């Protein structure tokens, strides 16, 4: 069943789009990532113009992360205080990121910068997470308790900086400087790469801030929801690149997938979840890396003179 | 050049008569001057507007036409040929070429094609190479391989094709557009239904761009163009499509808030309907 999209101006298969939304929604519910880093490449692969894919992806992320965050909120696994602090940093970061985006585009090779960023970040984060979670799994198999990363007295000096704040939900008493810095950094990345930043946020919260894994996912979803909502409004106001019909179809699949994902997540241990997310992140990173190195099918691509790829 | 001009004057009356754009009889060699041909030729579109709805997934555009006062001998020998091409809106487009740089494929060289039609769909009575020479096809922008991308209008009477921008980039553009179904040729897509009536089927792609499309029809007699005519086809979004589009471009900010609201309501409803905990 085909449908002609009003803004993207192309004809798509209804079931492919809904299915795409479901698959990404499932992963989003499972890992607490918005899925922006998956949905945007998938849409581009399906011939949706990249500008529309990035913006519409953000709109779909609002739905899936809202749905997921709500589920986590009901279970009490959202740290609103920590999430809001990250958000404050993220908002500043987004502004800086949008400026950097313009700068990169003006000197050309923005596509390359984005691809390299993806490969470096996905590759290194995926690798680190996989390494850690596998070791943690081996430890728990031997019988020692290691499913949660936190051990007393292991705070690094970063978390002991001044301006300390208590985050009861995460059982943390840490400086807000690294929290806001992390939020800022992720805001920059999110604006340049066109994603919510969950795949960077989740591991950073686990390994840098030492937030318990179960709280991380809900809090990350809460943060992503706001970032994606702001992106959606900005994109609609400046570029008119939100295809609401396409977004709605993705959401429809996404919310269904997210519920099943959240349920599946409850059956897995923290280290297993981290290992799976690590594999997913690595797979996307490796795929993008291979694409940069392998001889492409066609050496030529079409673009409009304003710089966006057609 | 002077030859083309004098004949252009004599052909002016017919040009006005058939409502064509810029008709000049062929003047490639000084000796072959074609007199005002007796044949007359016209086409008609069933509708001058195509509305894009949510269900639009490409369609066939049927064009009917008539050829009158045809020479019975030439008709028996099937030496009349008709080629109809629908040109989509023209726009500049950048073609980029990837090159290996320290092991990584990155965009290096690029060329701007000044005015490539967004879509191009052609139907003809026979294979184009059997109808007329390559030079004529290039002049008239007939055929994907000889389609002009520099923005000049197809016209007769030019001594040689204009210089082409960076051949390899133009070739790449043709290849990509053909691969996506945006450029197409249908040999045998024009068929005579009787001695004078003919019908053409043109394939319109699902990703048909909005805007003014121009259908140009050419009548060939023994390999020479003797008549041509054109019609404009307007492609617009209609109904729901048009409303969404207008809302998105006129009230961008509100549209953004609506999009977020839709997302939140969908996410919330999803929670209620699929509540599993």
UniProtKB/TrEMBL annotation, chain A:
Keywords: Cell membrane, Membrane, Transmembrane, Transmembrane helix. It is a multi-pass membrane protein. Signal peptide: none annotated. It is found in: Cell membrane; Membrane. GO terms for cellular component: plasma membrane. InterPro entries: TM_pro_TauE-like, TSUP/Inactive_protease-like. It comes from the Bacteria. The chain crosses the membrane at residues 12-45, 51-73, 85-104, 110-131, 172-195, 215-237, 244-262, 274-294. Belongs to the 4-toluene sulfonate uptake permease (TSUP) (TC 2.A.102) family. This is Probable membrane transporter protein.
From TrEMBL, chain B:
The chain crosses the membrane at residues 251-274. Keywords: Membrane, Signal, Transmembrane, Transmembrane helix. InterPro entries: CHP02186-rel_TM (IPR019088). Residues 1-22 form the signal peptide. NCBIfam families: alph_Pro_TM. This is TIGR02186 family protein. It comes from Fulvimarina pelagi HTCC2506.
């Amino acid at each position: 069943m085909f449908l002609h999209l009003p803004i993207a101006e192309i004809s798509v298969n209804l079931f492919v789009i809904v299915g795409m939304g479901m698959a990404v929604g499932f992963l989003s519910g499972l890992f607490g990532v918005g899925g922006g880093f998956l949905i945007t490449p998938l849409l581009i692969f399906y011939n949706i113009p990249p500008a529309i894919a990035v913006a519409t992806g953000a709109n779909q992320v609002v739905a899936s992360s809202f749905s997921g965050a709500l589920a986590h909120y009901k279970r009490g696994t959202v740290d609103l205080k920590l999430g809001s602090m990250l958000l404050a940093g993220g908002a500043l970061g987004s502004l800086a990121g949008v400026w950097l985006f313009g700068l990169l585009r003006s000197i050309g090779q923005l596509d390359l910068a984005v691809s390299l960023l993806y490969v470096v970040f996905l590759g290194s984060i995926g690798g680190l997470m996989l390494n850690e979670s596998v070791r943690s799994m081996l430890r728990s198999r031997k019988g020692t308790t290691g499913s949660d990363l936190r051990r007393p007295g292991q705070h690094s000096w970063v978390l002991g900086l001044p301006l300390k704040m208590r985050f009861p939900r995460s059982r943390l008493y840490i400086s807000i400087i690294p929290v806001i810095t992390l939020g800022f950094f992720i805001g920059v990345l999110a604006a340049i790469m066109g994603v919510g930043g969950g795949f960077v946020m989740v591991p950073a919260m686990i390994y840098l801030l030492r937030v318990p894994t179960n709280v991380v996912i809900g809090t990350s979803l809460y943060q992503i929801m706001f970032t994606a909502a702001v992106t959606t409004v900005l994109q609609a106001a400046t570029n008119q690149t939100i295809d609401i019909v396409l977004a709605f179809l993705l959401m429809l699949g996404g919310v269904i997938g997210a519920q099943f994902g959240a349920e599946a997540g409850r059956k897995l241990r923290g280290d297993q979840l981290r290992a799976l997310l690590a594999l997913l992140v690595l797979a996307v990173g490796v795929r993008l890396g291979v694409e940069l190195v392998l001889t492409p099918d066609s050496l030529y691509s079409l673009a409009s003179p304003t710089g966006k790829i057609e | 050049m002077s030859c083309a001009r004098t004949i252009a004057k004599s052909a002016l009356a017919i040009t006005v008569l058939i409502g064509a754009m810029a008709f000049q009889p062929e003047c490639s060699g000084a000796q072959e001057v074609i007199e005002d041909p007796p044949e007359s030729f016209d086409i008609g579109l069933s509708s001058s507007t195509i509305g894009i709805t949510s269900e639009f997934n490409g369609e066939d555009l049927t064009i009917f036409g008539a050829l009158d006062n045809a020479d019975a001998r030439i008709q028996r020998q099937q030496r009349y040929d008709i080629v109809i091409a629908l040109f989509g809106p023209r726009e500049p487009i950048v073609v980029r070429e990837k090159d290996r740089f320290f092991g990584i494929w990155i965009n290096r060289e690029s060329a701007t094609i000044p005015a490539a039609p967004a879509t191009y769909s052609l139907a003809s009575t026979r294979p184009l190479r059997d109808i007329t020479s390559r030079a004529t096809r290039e002049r008239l922008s007939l055929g994907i391989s000889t389609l002009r991308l520099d923005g000049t209008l197809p016209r007769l009477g030019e001594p040689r094709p204009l210089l082409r921008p960076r051949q390899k980039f133009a070739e790449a553009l043709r290849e990509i557009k053909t691969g996506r179904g945006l450029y197409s040729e249908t040999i045998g897509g024009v068929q005579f239904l009787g001695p004078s009536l003919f019908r053409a089927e043109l394939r319109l792609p699902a990703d048909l761009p909005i805007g003014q499309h121009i259908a140009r029809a050419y009548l060939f007699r023994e390999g020479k163009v003797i008549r041509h005519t054109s019609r404009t086809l307007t492609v617009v979004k209609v109904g729901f499509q048009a409303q969404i589009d207008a809302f998105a471009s006129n009230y961008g900010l509100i549209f953004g808030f609506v999009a977020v609201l839709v997302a939140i309501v969908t996410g919330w409803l999803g929670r209620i309907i699929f509540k599993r905990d």
